[in-house]
Amino acid sequence: MDERGLIRSLVPLLGSAATADDCAAVRHGGEWLLLSTDMLHETTDFPIGMTDVEIGWMAAAVTLSDIAAMGARPLTLLLATGLDRPERLAGITEGALACCRAHGADLAGGDTDAHTELTIVSTGLGTAASPVRRSGARPGDLICVTGYLGGAQAALSGHDQYWRRLIEPVPRVAEGLALNAAGVTAMMDISDGLALSLHDMLAVNECGFAVDSARLPRPGGVPEDEGREFALYGGGDFELLFTIPAEHFPVVGVDATVIGAVVAERSVTVDGAPLPGRGYMHCWGSSPDQNPDFR
Ligand SMILES: Nc1ncnc2c1ncn2[C@@H]1O[C@H](COP(=O)(O)OP(=O)(O)OP(=O)(O)O)[C@@H](O)[C@H]1O
Ligand SMILES: Cc1ncc(C[n+]2csc(CCOP(=O)(O)O)c2C)c(N)n1
Ligand SMILES: [Mg+2]
Ligand SMILES: [Mg+2]
Ligand SMILES: [Mg+2]
């Protein structure tokens, strides 16, 4: 059983809206509140060698990234920390606060307890007059990504020049706001890799996604085939994936690349062939082969 299948099994209980987007969207007065929560663990999310300050930054960044993905402005964050050692809390909080401040948010509270494996849950709140959903893509729209893809996976695969890219993800908050204002039709952040993200988009749209691999912005200095794999299937980049009518692209102030087109046929393809929904995913199984998280 993998994470996506398990989340899908909640739909009969919660309804499809609960799992359709990067954040929960709640109408409040004349605007929308956007809420996201993310759990990170030492063994699966914090590569060996990260400092506590970097761990705190990453925990805040992954949640601010989900708020950015809705085209929303982050307001505040709560940080709940299960600590294997109490002396780690100061550094973690310092890193999370730096990330919040860099993106216009407060760190307003949290929770602290003891746990065998360092575990951090960050919960964020943002606002938007009109949030951007993962649904809303229309045939003919361009498919675009901000920045470049595959850098975090390149670092995990030994390309040390990408280490900072892996451990210090930058939530694309300003870009998300600008893209919302520019009229993007659908958006999400790419936390688990482009291929999985496109399949997440497919699940909530009535159309399909055709990607041209030659157009993928890849990590420089990595052999071409490897870079293509990292860009398609590597997680941890936290760039934005969005669809936009051609007449609205490019968007001033947003570094983004066109990687393909929204098509009528409900499938995800790369260079005309089906793109597998493979990427960074938590699984449950009894052997290391079945389960990448197995230790
Ligand atoms: N246990 C759960 N109960 C209710 N909704 C859930 C649960 N787990 C996930 N979801 C919802 O399912 C959707 C997809 O979750 P997912 O974790 O894949 O998104 P994400 O936070 O954007 O990705 P990432 O975890 O890589 O940051 C979100 O809307 C999330 O709120
Ligand atoms: C060992 C290792 N592999 C990958 C990454 C990059 N990374 C950080 S958070 C995340 C996905 C979102 O997390 P989740 O789906 O658990 O909420 C990914 C892919 C990392 N930091 N360490
Ligand atoms: Mg997300
Ligand atoms: Mg998330
Ligand atoms: Mg998640």
TrEMBL record:
Domain of life, per lineage: Archaea
InterPro entries: PurM-like_C_sf, PurM-like_N, PurM-like_N_sf, ThiL-like
Keyword annotations of the record: ATP-binding, Kinase, Magnesium, Metal-binding, Nucleotide-binding, Thiamine biosynthesis, Transferase
Record: residues binding ATP: 110-111, 134, 191
Record's catalysed reaction(s): thiamine phosphate + ATP = thiamine diphosphate + ADP
GO biological process, one term: thiamine diphosphate biosynthetic process
Binding site for Mg(2+) 5: 192
Pathway listed: Cofactor biosynthesis; thiamine diphosphate biosynthesis; thiamine diphosphate from thiamine phosphate: step 1/1
Binding site for Mg(2+) 4: 22, 36, 66
Residues covered by the PurM-like N-terminal domain: 21-127
Pfam families registered for this protein in UniProt: AIRS (PF00586)
Gene Ontology MF terms in the entry: ATP binding; magnesium ion binding; thiamine-phosphate kinase activity
Binding positions for Mg(2+) 1 per the UniProt entry: 37-38, 111
EC number(s) on file: 2.7.4.16
Metal-binding among keywords: yes
Protein family (similarity comment): Belongs to the thiamine-monophosphate kinase family.
Other notes: Reaction mechanism of ThiL seems to utilize a direct, inline transfer of the gamma-phosphate of ATP to TMP rather than a phosphorylated enzyme intermediate.
Role: Catalyzes the ATP-dependent phosphorylation of thiamine-monophosphate (TMP) to form thiamine-pyrophosphate (TPP), the active form of vitamin B1.
PANTHER family: THIAMINE-MONOPHOSPHATE KINASE
Protein name (database record): Thiamine-monophosphate kinase
Species this protein is from: Methanofollis fontis
